[in-house]
# Entry
Amino acid sequence: MDLENIVPTNFIEEEIVEDLKAGRSKEVITRCPPEPSGYWHIGHCKAWIIDFETALKFGGYTYLRMDDTNPSKEQGEFADSYMEDLEWLGYKPKAMVYASLAYFDKIYEIAEKMIENGDAYVDELSQEEQLKLKGTLTTPGINSPYRDRPREESLRLFREMRAGKYADGTLTLRAKIDMAHPNILMRDPIMYNISREPHYKTGTKWCIYPKYDFAHPMEDALEGVTYSLCDTTFRVHRPVYEWFIEHGWNNPYAPKQREFSSLNLENVLLGKRYLKALVESGKVMGWDDPRFMTIVGMKRRGYTANGVKNFIKSCGVVASESTLPLSALEYHIREDLNKIATRAMVVLDPLKVVITNYEGQEEIEIDNNPNDETAGKHKAMFARTIYIEKEDFALNPPPKYNRLTLGGVVRLKGAYIIKCNNVIYDNDGNIDHLECEYFENSKSGQDTSGIKVKGTIHFVAENGSFDCTIRNFKNLTKMEYVWPGKALEQGVSIDEILEENSIYETKAKAENFLLTAKPYDKFQFMRKGYYSLDKDSTKDNYIFNNTISLKDSFKK
# Structure
């Protein structure tokens, strides 16, 4: 590793460079340690991207580790999804590790050693009694009456706990730190509790489980992690982390915990417990609901991994908290889709047009992506009967209206110039269809007509198109709830913050080229927005999710 040519871009990288130069670290190893109790959302993306990108920059690597120490919340379904999420983001971990399988035995051995060293004891107080003795931010706690019991007795009780001799919740193993410490988390935290809840990986092998504040630093140490990177919500836990490293590990090259700001987006509901409640309520389509900012939801909506990564990287790695508008994320999604999405003609609100002086049909060519010379072209159809958007025709056009009007001309994308000669009404007085003429020598790329037009509109031919479903979305939560999670914490109900009719479907006509689309394929529907074929699609019903509009409201 050539440290002289590595330019640190944030405070974490600066410390890493200093550590490597001073010999305090030998390499950079990070980890993704999710608790498999829900699907990842965009907030997790920031953490995992920082973990992977930091390690990669210094020639290191990252583990994906299931921090599965709480059997009451965890399911294999969630654990299995994380590798797919990382693959979608473009990262490959050094290994996928289950703490329950790889480290539980060793963590137990460390706990026994800490008892023998006088750094832990078995407490017979209930957790309610422990809480009463915990103290407050302004008053110190009170020692448990079992705090100074002989080490041999605590060791015997701890082994009996593991053997299943005691009921759930009756005994705990606690660290012996300081009940008067100003950080309440340092007041003899629980290291193990008793739970006979079957574990999704180990079944009934264990009836005691290590608590997060003890298990996490031990897992990091056993794994060889050098930098345990997490968001600022864990900053208050760092003294506990460091105490357990000192008293439970006590080896050179111990891991360091360092914190960065969490990702906060306006008007976006994050938090696994809230999303899980919505899933279980049946109010959404599942964890991959396209209105969710879960990775599976964003993928289904049509977001791109590069767009998400570019947004995260634009936030930087800082320690101070801030909240960003959703449009900041959308800016990067839109930028990436513009580069990669295939162009197609889809009429969302059809108006029938009959070309009275044209018979038969012919193929025209449409660029798949004008930003990519290698994207090629595809065939579309021009015919006597076509459909255009209703908004592309006006009887009484506003100023600077450059689309079709009665007696006016417009170019059809990839095809001919047409002129509207007549408007045909139905029995209710509504426009039924338009009668137009085309100019034979005005075909795109071959135009010798000399006719000047100010506008170009898209269209589909009646016999070159099919009916499809467009799934449209509003924001999941009402816009007045800038911080939906905070509103829920303050007692507002989920039903109250949810936007009514935040998902609705409409019908459209799409050119036949889209019949070859596969789920998750991404398209720009010309002049309309970006769309992705939904996984619910069938051969009889193609469903396109409205990913994002063409219009950008974000000021970079």
Remarks:
- The two ends are 35 Å apart (CA to CA).
